Batch of 4 targets.
Target 1
Amino acid sequence: MPDVHTLVNDFLNQLKKRKIEGSQATAKLTAELLRSVISQQRVPHTNQATTLINAVRAVGEQLIAANPIELAVGNIVRRVLHIIREEDLSLATAAMDGLGVSAASDDEDDAERDENPVLSAAAVAAAARSTLRPPSLQTLLEDTSDSAAAPPTSSSGGESDGRSRSVEKGSRGRKLKHDVIEAVNELIQDISTCYEQIAEQAVEHIHHNEVILTLGSSKTVLEFLYAAKEKQRSFKVFVAEGAPRYQGHLLAKELAARGLQTTVITDSAVFAMISRVNMVIVGAHAVMANGGVIAPVGLNMAALAAQRHAVPFVVLAGSHKLCPLYPHNPEVLLNELRSPSELLDFGEFSDCMDSASGAGSLHVVNPTFDYVPPKLVSLFITDTGGHNPSYMYRLIADYYSADDLVVKRRPTTGS
Amino acid sequence: MGAQKKSGARVSEDPDELVRVPLQAVLLADSFTTKFRPITLERPKVLLPLVNVPMINYTLTWLESAGVEEVFVFCCSHSKQVISYLEKSEWLSQPNFTVTTVESQNSVSAGDALRVIYERNVIHGDFVLISGDTVSNMSLTQALLEHKERKKKDSNAVMTMVIKRSKPNPAIHQSRLGTDELFMAIDPNTKQLLYYEDRADQSKGTLHLDKSLLADNPSLSLHHDKQDCYIDICSPEVLSLFTDNFDYQHLRRHFVKGLLLDDIMGYKIFVHEIHSDYAARIDNFRSYDTVSKDIIHRWTYPLVPDVMNFGDTATKLERQGIYRASEISQSQSAVIGPFTVIGSGTKIGHNTKILNSVIGEGCKIGSNVIIEGCYIWDNISIEDGCKLQHAIVCDGVIIKSGAVLEPGVILSFKVVVGPEFVVPPYSNVSLLQQPIEEDSDEELEYADSTSVIGSQVDKSDVEIASKVLETHFSPASELGMGGAGHVWSTCEGSHEEEWRHSVAPIPKDKVMEAIKTMKDDLENDDSFLPPSGELKPNSNYSDDDDHEDSRDDSYYFEKEVEATFLRAVHENIQESHLILEINSLKLSYNKLAADCAGAVFSAMMKYALDTPHSSADVLLQNVQAVFTKWKKALTSYLTDIDEQIEVILKFEEICEESAKEFAPLFTRILHYLYNEDVVEEDAILSWEAELKDADEADKVFVKQAQKLIQWLKEAPEEDDDDEE
């Protein structure tokens, strides 16, 4: 337990000091941390899922508070919570066979189990499942098959005895934890391979002799463009430099090194160049539930330019960037204002900032993110495929359960 | 060298082993000054809140994020408070970051502190020396690397100072942090610090470099726009140096200057300049104000209120730089201006205006209050209708309704200001009496009194406070009805300093005044220092070349004329050729004949001065010799009376500034010039008339020449009666 504690504190520290950059790295670290939290958490016989959920919530709350701007932390916490709920549910449905048997076989030894009638348990599970997964096109199909399959199995089973049941019950705790850890591992795997999954789709979107515009630097975009090049597509890339951090320069360098024909332009030249562009492809910091995008500063301008010239504006985002919150939430809209020294050299302008003599009052603001409203986005490409902005909330419903949208516990619980 | 050997043996001879030593830091939690009095009588400076977070947190956070693994916090005055604060905070329980407190009651200076650290034998490698009131977000990696590299090449490179560019205010010669203009000579190639002067004589605008500096270094650049960040990367030798030189007290004044001047040991100091990163030390109230504003403007990111939350309450940044903590109750009609920080649990009444201020936790602010540019700490109650401008108000102060704080006021802990009372500007108010043994001399600012009083207060802080409260709740105290507190009288000589170091902005009239004097200086003196440049010693520069390399072309012009003249003298060039050359200079610099006359004259005088002379008479003879030979070069520019006046003014300036030897000879040379027809009678008389209204100080030479003037007036016809 203390081991996890130091891990958590260490991570909190890093988040607080803004030492971790990039949502992918943050997401991965968060998932790994939560995995160790879960694996170290001792689970009682009853209410295992609740214990795990509470443990994850307690840590998650701290993590989110440490850097509320980095939405990936909250996303991963919610994803893990959702995983726990799902695994619990699937175990419950699986165990229902046993439960059904116990009720049917009318065993005296297991008095406490008799309090849970089969029917109600199944109903609760079904209800829980339906809240977990609102019927999207895919899940509707899955669910119907599931629920159609479940009742017959529960009624059909009938040969297991009380001893095997108790063994099964003891192992169930370990099984839940095990399953959850497995699923979190999968999640980590997903996060680290999201580049490739997104990049695989590149050929479908980039065609011969096209001109692609991007702004700033994003690993996803880099891989995406490179994948298209690998598939023998020849195209040009315009890179807007992404002031004030000029990460576009790095991207351009990398692209050029990989043999793509690259042109660097200033951010302010985006409008001038957009008429020659066939498609704008950018990365995102986070994708909100309404399909709006929190993206590096300057992108809103690029999106507006793209709209003006009817150029498709495509946003690449790994599924860990999908945030179940809506951007009317001020917490989200709050921007990270970084040090003005990225814009101006302090020493150079120190006389203008001499507040003491009252001579100068130079203020410099350096926001990190822009909000791009959903109507400006033509397409999202995630690791599960391309989606319309209006479909985002559906996708999000697949990944998160509605109960977890507010991770913060009631103040009464304490920590 | 003995010191070095000793420490060498102490640490380890093996360089590989040195590498593995974790990075250590010595944090001085005591500034050993009295600049923050009266507040520091009751609470140590490092615990004073800076934008609602005790200063030491900024320093420790930075040290931690810069990769320092072990910090020794040296506590002296109020050591108990510092230690108990650290114990309560989370600093002592951080992974990979150990904070150890070192307590010493009888240290009175940074030098003593380092000697104590040396005796403890805890520093095993390079360490960062920093004071607990430093705010920075710089990355140490580069500086450390440079230091280590240099150390490998030259074991005498004991220290790397971090400096930052910061333009000083040209008018009042102080940086935005309120410190005096700092002059540094740095070798631009090796970054070695060659000269350090933080208290240069502003009045003259000159500073003196040792001749050998110019001789020994192929090039050196002189800076006056650098700010000392007081972050030093030191080798362990520094500690032993302090122990060996037990009279070293002040880090800069004794240690740095000592090493620079005394080259017997050959130790060298280098500088590391940071550009985009931030680093500043809070040295006085002015820098407290400036650094607070820098933090609010996010120059110190990530050390900003909404990111660095030490308490449980998160602060949120709103538009226009308003930082708001949770649980604030604010009236609808209250106006909160930009760049304001409000702590949690604070209540703000109707129609109250808060601009550019920092408000702490749990304050109660009434209605119709105006707060501008103030630093209000925790649990303060401000009643209705008060007006506060550019003040620092410490914890627990009560300001009764209608009271006014004028700019620059400091209210120490628990002071009560009576209703309708106006606290005069720049007053320091404390519940404690002003200590009698006030150290007026700044050199002694780290004298015993700090620690003695500090420890007294430590013990009986509450006692004294309650006693004072009782005695001073008399109906009419120094602070109006029902007020409590003593207004400290400003100590002698610090009246001038008052506005320089206070939180209040510099009054406009002071700036105007300073600009005016500066302009006056400029008119007769070209030694105003332009921004740094590089100075290469070359043969044309004579010894009095204290000036920086300058872009000011009149300065260049003079130098050029002087060099031409000297060449003419040495190579025996004909007068007419010299005049031609000077004429071409005059055209290329676009100067008037008067400027030429002045320049030629000063070149001649300098030449006369440089010719060896034993006494004033010989000097006079030198002058005469020079003039007999080169008079024509000068007189060719003296066609008009104005030019002659210029020559006299120039002469006066030379006497005052660069060559004091001429001062006693002023009249005699002037007379000589008159006899030689270099200057005419009218010129002398109108010069005298021009200076009639000048300051007494400027009239020294007029007085000296009075006899001559008298004689001039009387000797010829009585046609100039109107002169008197």
Note: The two ends of chain B are 70 Å apart (CA to CA).
Target 2
Amino acid sequence: MPNSSSDKKIAAQKRGNRLGFWFFETLLKFFGLRGAYALLYLVCLHYLLFDRKAVANALAYVKRRFPGAGFFKSRLEVYRLFISQGKQLIDRFAMISGKTKFDIQLKGYEQLKNLLEAKDKGFVLLTAHVGNWQIALTTLKKMAKPVYLVMRQEDNAAVKESLHIDTQDTLIRIISPEGYLGGVVEAMQVLKEGNIVSIMGDRKYGFPAVEIAFLKDKAYFPFGAFSIAASNNCPVVVLLSAKLGQNKYVVDVSNIIYPRYNSSKEKREQLKVYVQEFADILDKYAQTYPYQCFLFHDVWNPD
Amino acid sequence: MAENKEEQLKAIRKKLKELLVSHLSLEDVVPEKIKDDEILFGEGLGLDSLDAVEIVVLLQRNFGLEVKDMSQGRKIFYSVDTLANYIYDNQKK
């Protein structure tokens, strides 16, 4: 959660516009997924050549996941990452439109069911910029509990309209991290009422972070999700998803972390072990699905 | 009545300062050094969101209070004084 009490607008670069989304939508309508995917190769090449910031952000991950890759090889990996993310955005689009059916496996739902049955206590759903978290959340509709996403309101109107992030489902609500104290007090309250709070665990967005190891290097992940869970005595369910084939995804909720304090001293240090546990899960994910880690941010930079 | 209220507020402020020092990661700060009107978050005492989580828990465990109206959050969490007033007003009910 933000260090400052001032409600600083969290900066985000806007990519995509209405015309672009219309174009993809039309291709999807007439040529299906493959047709829409085909255009991606050109669009992503444009980003690779002209969007230096996007490339630099992706390189932070690529350099660590593919150590030893030279100039051209690392750019090729960035290109593959861009295409992979583009495909997943199109999938999300196709899924919402209802014209394309997806086979989605749900891993670990039995454990989650036990948590859902505890009506008086909620839990933290910890996500990351990997796979297709929008599809993952949509799949979890069957939880039939309100999910409060701690996320910036999408300020790119074209993206917002195309992804239906906060309009599609009344069970999905937004807590803005740009609000007072990063929405932390609100998150505490909704958890206490037995709801689910979903937080991105791999980006600081100006919130306090701890140093952990990720992809064999020192990285900085926020610990807000774990402090909220430890204080509420509730678990953290890690929500991951991965694309397995053209119309196939897996949504994994089998990793559950139980952050607890042993004493009232050095709480930040105590949380570090849980943040590391989460980073290890992401590390394993990156080894298995190297082109589905869409961090696009230098999490190894302490600033 | 007014004197009684001020006495109670004074006691709440004292207890709050002691709780803040014992539960938050405040280095080299003693309760007596925290001013009643010192801004808690950002500038002033320099607390962050982890501390906000702790204060929410402190309010629940020590005073049986929850902050349900988030539009009041900024006003309530501003200083020891505003927190004490919130506790005084809501414990009475």
Note: Chain B has a mean pLDDT of 87.
Target 3
Amino acid sequence: MARKTTNQKAWFLVVPVVVLVAFNAVIPLMTVVNYSVQETFGDNVFFWEGVKWYEQVLHSARFHASLLRQITFTGIILAIEIPLGVAIALTMPKKGFWVSVCLVLMALPLLIPWNVVGAMWNIYALPELGLLGRIINGLGINYNFTQQPIAAWFTTIMMDVWHWTSLVVLLAYAGLRSIPDAYYQAAKIDGASGWAVFRHIQLPKMKRVLTIAILLRFMDSFMIYTEPFVLTGGGPGNSTTFLSIDLVKVALGQFDLGPAAAMSLIYFLIVLLTSWVFYTLMMKNEEQ
Amino acid sequence: MRKLTWLAPTLYITFLLMPIYWLLNMSFKTTNEILGTFTLWPQEFTFDNYIKIFTDPTWYNGYFNSITYVLINTVISVSVALPAAYAFSRYRFLGDKHLFFWLLTNRMAPPAVFALPFFQLYSAVNLFDTPIAVALAHCLFNIPLAVWILEGFMSGVPRELDETAYVDGYSFPRFFVRVFLPTIAAGIGVAAFFCFMFSWVELLLAKTLTSVAAKPIAATMTRTASTSGYELGLLAAAGTLTIVPGAFVIYFVRNYIAKGFALGRV
Amino acid sequence: MAKITLQDIRHSYIDNPVTEDDWALKHMSVDWADGTACALLGPSGCGKTTLLNIISGLLDPSEGKVLFDGKDMTGTPTDQRNIAQVFQFPVVYDTMSVYDNLAFPLRNRGVSGAALESRVHEIAAMLDLEETLHSRASGLTADGKQKISLGRGLVRADVSAILFDEPLTVIDPHLKWMLRSKLKELHQQVGATMIYVTHDQTEALTFADQVIVMHEGTVVQIGTPVELFERPKHTFVGHFIGSPGMNLLPCEIRDGAAFFAGTRVETDHAVKPAGAAKTTQIGVRPEFISFADQGVAVEVVKVSDAGRHSIVETQAGDHVIRLLLDEGEKAPEGQAFLHFDPGHTQVYADGWMVE
């Protein structure tokens, strides 16, 4: 990599980006911080409350429950999507006409508006009208995602796997394509088994893209809102109420601005800290 | 063993296409058929749902609104990200690393956190319910993304290119537009693709920042679903139509997708 | 250790080759005696790597057979051919230590315990890798990595042949010399058949006892370095090997002799009438031309110093003729006459030497 030269004038090139992002990030963030330390009874009258809302949120059973659901959900979808994505990428054709077909069809779910994803899965999974609902009930399993928490979880997870595994596939596939043929040829000559090729060639070369895939899937699944909201509305009961859904319920549904703001910041911090730790570990690993 | 490797991608693609097929299937059915009998393909094939969408302004305006803010956002994001990415890839300056990381943190902000403050902010500056508001709001996550992708592509261009151009007497703007941009055309394509994609699929902010005039298509659908619950055919047709622009875009950039991903930058 | 034979090999990357140009490798049969150090020399795209991959079994030839010690190996998978191959870019398993890299091919073949350990140490000693044996392979320099690639081939005692595919491409110039002499030394020590693909004539001529020159998918000449130099069978060989390359001058054939620009040129062998040949040329290396009182009339254009000798560029009509002068010899100025050493002057008809 070429060496960079120090040039403070480069700031001029960055100014438009900083202005636009700051407008969108800093002002709203300040608003949230502002709300999070005050109480209001309407009419734009605010009272200083200090860290009261933070304490309330951190001790609230409701927040704990949402957080636990969120962590469980993210854990499950990572455990499914990453290995599945890698497996699909490994079996994809390497060249020719079918590569384009696979890429285009696989990328399709990524470009569907998120609430359409929710609506589509709703229609697909309806116990009476939906294909999936019919199939599962046809197997003799009583399935109704609007009534049974387990069915709701199952459907939400299926939907997320459907929606996002392709991202992992595309990343892993790109990682695999960057391995020179000589590695596979050398492995053949060395008499390596298929597992050894995966363990010692493919996996190490995919490490970087997989880290990015895990990071992205962690962040995005942790922030998930629209798809489960449209599919289940957070129900039945609160069974699929993840952090974002809960937050919107508190903020816009109950208009409890203080607690909602405090919750927002705690939430943001969790995502940020986890990503940062992950990012740092990744960078450290890369330097070795 | 080897002969069976096509099986996994085929099964996976089938799994991907089944819900889409079901949506398509529903969109060509009459409400009676949907509610009356369970059929794997439309028995009374109808275009009524599509005709309704193409003739009712509240429906088709939704498409225009969506496309408008997505395009505005893509243009803004990519054009401001270009010089910034150049600065990050070529120069060292005060606070560059922190700035870069700060930009990326915005990709990590849950939109739900910003929904309410955004509503207040854009109301305050009188942009509420305009495509511009949504386009600007989406800059929050699309600009960092575009900077990240473009920086990756630009770092791959040798500095000698810049130096040669300056020696040849090019001014910076002329060099940037005439020489540099054509060199990273693929990168611009990839960045634009991802900006388009994330702006097109995001709905929480888009819905929060609009009410009537600039309502995105996806939000129009939500209304139908909640008010008249049984217009599933119409909902399916609208949903099907939202897949079309994405499919087009993917088709055109299919050869660049893998390349963009290959940089390990998304 | 084995004798390797290619029988009537042809290969095309296209499913239905029609024209001659569709064949990446045109019809050929080659023999390598057990223990040869052979170089495959030719410019990029001449089919060298294709040939190498056919030997190692990474590629199945469209036609023909590959024999090891007379046994038909065509279609036998690579790992059962007992072949080792070193690639252009070093291939090491990043996650493993140098030791594990060297042990990998043996472990895959079920070798373990003391036998494995002693063999790995033996090979590491041979390649001067002992000091880094327990560090991560990914941390090594390019030449270190290339040694590991080589080591993974050598570690198997039973290899039939070691194939090298331009192995010094990414090595620093000053290390190239060291690695090349190391290879030569290893060849003498191990005695394995080694086939070395390169586009660099110096590498080929210093490494090999036998050089195969390839051009556009055909073998143009097989011979020792001396043969290639003194009696190039094809103008391509004359031009490609030697620096500067062979002088090629159009000539006329009459009365059983060759004439260049009206001057009769004595050649190595009797010249038959040209027959159907479209072009006839005289080929003579700069090393075998000297100034004389009579002969081919030329004008001296330029003299450049190339260390131990100087290169004189002369012009005869439209044709440039280069010759070498030893240190201390002086080139005349202006008009001069050249003498071609008859023992090293050949006639070529349509590119091929007339015999």
Note: Residues 245-353 of chain C form a domain with the OB fold (Dihydrolipoamide Acetyltransferase, E2P) fold (CATH 2.40.50.140).
Target 4
Amino acid sequence: MFDVSRVQKELTECNRDKAISGVSIALYEGGSDLSHLRGTITGPVSTPYEGGTFLIDIQLPSGYPFEPPKMQFITKVWHPNISSQNGAICLDILKDQWSPALTLKTALVSLQALLSAPEPDDPQDAVVAKQYLQEYPTFVATARYWTEAFARTSVAIEEKVRRLVEMGFPEDLVKSTLDSVNGDENLALEKLCSS
Amino acid sequence: MSKRTLCKFFMHGACLKGDYCEFSHDWRDQANNICTFYQKGVCSYGSRCRYEHVKVSRIQSSGPSSSNSHPHVTSESHQVSHPPIVSLPRAYDPGLSTSVDVSTLSSAHGFPFTSAWTNNFDADTSFIDEIGSYPAYVTDADRPICSFAAAGNCPHGERCPHIHGDLCSICGKHCLHPFRPDEREDHIKMCQKNNKHLESLKFSQEIECSVCLDRVLSKSKPAERKFGLLSECDHPFCISCIRNWRSNSPSSGMDVNSALRACPMCRKLSYFVIPSVIWYSTKEEKQEIVESYKNKLKSIDCKYFDFGNGTCPFGSSCFYKHAYRDGRLEEVVLRHLDAEDGSTVIAKDIRFYIICSLSIHLVYHELYIALAD
């Protein structure tokens, strides 16, 4: 079993300054399993990922923090080091260069840095890397399009929350209900009305 | 004779007499484990007594027992079965006082000579028992320090037969002997050392392990309340975290040499971890911790070397003791030789003639260069 007290400390520490760092961690799907978390990072400014919010699935192995956490993008992203198919990440600190002094927060911040500084020479997705090296403008356009299409949902979620709150539902309840139906506004409204 | 009996107070780490104790402070000496109360026929502890209940024909301690700082308790054992032999001129000379055998001196109570304080004290008969075996001390330096006063309160106050020590400003106890400068110095030194240890312990309380994010000295398990110092850098970890990380199996995907042997914080490679209860604040303190750890290991026999029966994978750089059963230490047989292809080889079991032929070879080589010039 992994170090529960350390994970709890990390969660409070990370969420304390999420407005500044642009990364946050929550329990996966609002569950109670500390080994399955969901990280959120904002796309770095002046990159094709600006304005996007990217969700990352985090699974903690039993050896954590002596083994690296397993991280994978849930949000689809167009990046040479992230698989466009399944969101797998190629980053040395999540593999052989992991150190127990790294935390979930520092790992997420590293992912943010990876978004702003791709490494096409050590790719995870060969198609994207080839495009990055040979047709850079096309790469930027595609990446921006993917960000608009897949990573802006959370902005929409804020909007949905605002609308539902205006209907007279308490904000916390609206958020958790939206979470439980994966952000579908109509389903959330149905649920809120029936409860 | 009494010098060869181990001091009971010393055994418990609480002898206030130091070098002036009439009993031995050498662990190799035998302790007198015979119950003095049993000799008199009354030991209230009975079978639970920690001392031996055997009859001895004559009580060995003709001098005072080491517990005589409270003479009214043990004074019966002071009965002397032989006339005291004291060379008076020697005893009177204060300059020689340290070399005088205290056990003979203290049995000199029958002599007309009494020092000033015993005169004052004669009036208090409740303190001196009926046998009157209270030992007379010739010089102030011979008078033992009063342990009641050292602990804070002496019931006899001014009239106490023992000397009341001066206040030690560090530990706040009246335990500095006014007439034994060596002992004073030792005590102050010890106090300063203890004080320093306490200070660094206080400082260490706040230090957090960068892996478990807990304060190292506040970990739940007492065994984990220890730092693991890395030889090459100054990042604090608890011993269990850093050992756990370094013993991670390479199959987990982490590289042994670039990740596991490195400091989790700065990734500097360290080849060993030193356990320590305190965290250091200066380089010298770290050096001291490392040295004392290495010295401790050097006194423990290496389980791989196994008194010469096994082979130790660490060879001559092993921290543990490599000694044979007869106490002889292993000789270091490794020698580095420059091989012909320029690389360095380690020669095992090198013989003298090889060195000779090598040096001859070198001499020729130099001669050849000199001639060529």
Note: The longest strand of chain A covers residues 36-42.
